[in-house]
Fold this sequence. Notes:
By secondary structure, this protein is an alpha+beta fold.
Amino acid sequence: MNSKIPVKNITPPKASGDLYEKRQKIFTRAFTGLFRSIRIYVGAILFLLFLGTAWLNWDGRQAVWWNLPERKFYIFGATFWPQDFMLLSWLLIISAFSLFFITVFAGRVWCGYACPQTTWTWIFMWVEKVTEGDRNKRMKLDKAPWSTEKILRRSAKHGLWLLIGFVTGLTFVGYFTPIRQLPIDLFTGQADGWSYFWVGFFTVMTYLAAGYLREQVCIYMCPYSRFQSVMFDKDTLIVSYDAKRGENRGPRKKTADYKAEGLGDCIDCTLCVQVCPTGIDIRDGLQIACVSCAACIDVCDEVMGKMGYEKGLISYTTEHNLSGEKTKLVRPRLVGYAAAILIMISLFSYTIFNRTLVELNVIKDRIPYRENMEGRVENVYLLRIINKDQHAHTYMLEASGLDGLQLEGKQNFEVQAGEIFSSPVSVSVDPEALGSSANTIEFKIQSVDDQRISRASKSTFIGPVVR
């Protein structure tokens, strides 16, 4: 053990009657740097995608629209139905494995750069800085007695927070209700009660989560923060402080020979703590509250530059790098996740591009059978055709499975785009062709204008008992 590294005093345990520590409010300091710029660009893109996609049009309708009352889910040129929900399961599994891959490779970067909670929190923190000033001003304002200035600044902050929360709630509900009409209905009192409830709910939750809870969501509520650490290995990129280089810490003059004084590169300015959105000290080692946002890296590099020291005292690195060993970029677990993702994406893409654009359901009538005027045994079925395509199609119906099987009545059906079409159909056969009282037959529909669109469904043909 390096004898120069100071041993911190251990705080004695609290009395049994005081098990929960009061939350210490975090006042973050403004800073600049490479990783901050990356986070701003990524967050802006994701924020605009979320807000903008709901307003896009496609073939005269909303491009992305989960139409729950009609059980239709539009995603640009594709229409999905409840029968396609297996694809959603696939997509969620692929997303989970992608998150696992990223975690093994680069730690908790999803939390630092792309998580909605983090993105909205940084936006709310920016609003806080604009309305109340930088860190020191906010701390003074927080302790100051209520005055006209404090009321105005706080009102502006909370007003903007609520506005952002409202826009967030409106946009989210707009993916389930036509968004162009939604604001008009809300402000004119024409919207239904559920629209008011959900817009209000997401407004309040956004306001609370990004304005008040902030780091507590990441530390206590997010399940990812609990299990992501078991996915780390000694080659995972994590935000780390180089203790060998930084200790012993302490203030010094820029021109001083600090190494002769037994000091390391860390000047103990605590700026890395002041910029951290979760309020941790990265110099204490990797912690569950670290969201890998690299704010401490940016501010530390800035301090190192001003002092004339080499940058990278805090950096994205690995345990192997810190211990002087070589980092292995390719390892079995990482390769396994990558292979699984590629296989699942390939299968998912194949299923999407080759999925049938028509669904056929055949429901047998409750009357087992009847004999028609020609002496043939006749069964009645309810035919249900779901056109999943964006265009109308005329489908030709065929029935097979028994010798001499005939369709009675209409055999061509025109179904509009996205329509669920139902029609009764009758099928008859000569009694002599029946091998038993229950026989399997098959119905098949095929688009007249596109031979690739077809679907088959089996059912049972009931007849008299064969002796």
